[in-house]
Design goal:
The chain is α+β, with helices and mostly antiparallel strands and 405 residues long. It has helices spanning 16-30, 37-48, 73-89, 99-111, 135-155, 179-189, 244-261, 265-281, 286-305, 315-320, 340-359, 374-378, 391-399; strands at residues 58-63, 114-117, 120-123, 159-165, 168-173, 206-209, 212-217, 220-225, 326-332, 363-369. The chain starts with 15 loop residues before the first helix and ends in a 6-residue tail after the last helix. The relative contact order is 0.10.
């Protein structure tokens, strides 16, 4: 399960140990942050809706300019090494943390990233090692060091709320819009060669952040779903070889998101209506979509109104959890194959009693996987090599001033 990045709430001027906790939280959660976009926006909503916004406060957002490309490798290695060594000196790393191995691995990975292009191989010389699992955590920790040691100490008194999700920044500003804001913008850009578009942005009472439009009204934050104008809304087609549960899951998930994101009911109704029209445009039958939407709306509203208490489970409780005693039967899905219900019946008829008695399996779960489709065939990562037209041949001809076919 993907988790959220740590909150940087800076109204109370943070001390060094608080900064370390922020960076540790961001480091832990950046590992699994590729990416649960919905959870991140929901975390922001849960936090800002509880705030009482001071009079005169404004909102701001900004994006990093090609963040991964513009993180200087040597500078990032130096910064992250400072941070890890500082934690080690304060005994904040686990007892058996392999510090030297981590530092050595970081340099190996970031300085030895090799790309394949046809029959050519290239060593990446600048920026974050793209395609590596460490890239998100690397970028997150790198700039978090600047936040903890410069932005928060220097400008925390003007930042009522501050959040960054990799290369997207959002905050609530309470300082003046002239000298204080200008000094903050200068400091945001003053870290290595990485720059942000913050100087092109203006403080406002309403901004778009992730998939939200956030606005200040009556000293509270209200929200609305944000959708890009160029979004094609390419939901799965009715003739696609997906199980019927896929489109149902899509509808229920989107309606749940719209219900959570929209403060005002008329906005929720608007986006549900747009979802209905877009599904019809994709070829789905009107009555079928109407039935699913009318089923989803009250379900989502009931779930939202139900207060559930999360309790910490003991190891004994986890062992007794029926989810731990399930058998997963993996099947490649085909629309003309044996229905899920029939597989369940056959299992119970021939295996159910035996498996429960001998190995404690109390229920099976049918887990479908998809077969290869056209997308797998036409979007291969490996470059097709036409006879006599390898990438090395064509690049060589370009280098020599020729005009290859």
């Amino acid at each position: 399960m993907a988790k959220k990045l740590g909150l940087v709430r800076v109204r109370d001027a943070p001390k060094m140990d608080v900064g370390d906790e922020i960076m540790l939280a961001e480091a832990r959660e950046a590992v699994v942050a590729e990416f649960d976009f919905d959870e991140m926006s929901q975390q922001v909503l849960d936090e800002v809706r509880r705030l009482h916004i001071p009079p005169g406060a404004k909102l701001f957002t900004c994006d990093a300019n090609a963040m991964y490309n513009n993180i200087d490798t040597d500078h990032a290695i130096e910064v992250i090494t400072w941070w890890l060594n500082g934690l080690n000196e304060q005994n904040k790393l686990p007892h058996d943390f392999p510090l030297e191995a981590i530092l050595e691995a970081m340099e190996i990975i970031m300085k030895n990233n090799i790309f394949e292009f046809g029959d050519c191989y290239f060593l990446q010389l600048l920026g974050t090692a793209m395609g590596t699992s460490a890239a998100v955590m690397w970028a997150t920790i790198y700039y978090a060091y600047h936040e903890v040691h410069t932005l928060i100490p220097n400008h925390g008194h003007n930042l009522f709320y501050f959040k960054r999700f990799i290369d997207d920044m959002f905050g609530i500003w309470t300082g003046n819009a002239t000298t204080d804001w200008s000094a903050f913008c200068d400091d945001v850009d003053n870290f290595g060669v990485l720059t942000w578009d913050i100087k092109d942005q203006k403080l406002s009472s309403s901004v778009d952040f992730l998939d939200l439009t956030l606005s200040i009204k009556h000293n509270k934050i209200v929200s609305r779903t944000f959708q890009k104008k160029m979004n094609l809304y390419l939901y799965i087609l009715p003739m696609s070889a997906h199980s019927s549960g896929c489109i149902k899951g899509t509808i229920f998930g989107l309606i749940r998101r719209y219900h959570a994101q929209n403060t005002y009911r008329h906005d929720f109704i608007l986006f549900v209506s747009l979802l209905y029209r877009r599904l019809i445009a994709r070829g789905w039958e009107r009555e079928a979509m109407k039935k699913l939407i009318l089923e989803a709306c009250p379900y989502v509203q009931r779930k939202a109104n139900t207060n559930t208490t999360v309790t910490q489970q003991t190891p004994e409780a986890l062992r007794d959890d029926p989810d731990e005693n399930r058998l997963f039967i993996y099947i490649k899905y085909h629309p003309n194959d044996v229905p899920r219900q029939r597989v369940q019946q056959l299992y119970q008829q021939h295996c159910g009693e035996l498996f429960e008695r001998e190995i404690g399996i109390k229920r099976p779960t049918i887990a479908y996987s998809r077969p290869k489709n056209l997308g797998d065939l036409i979007t291969k990562a490996k470059l097709h090599q036409a006879p006599g037209q390898t990438s090395s041949t064509i690049l060589g001809e370009f280098r020599n001033g020729l005009n290859p076919p």
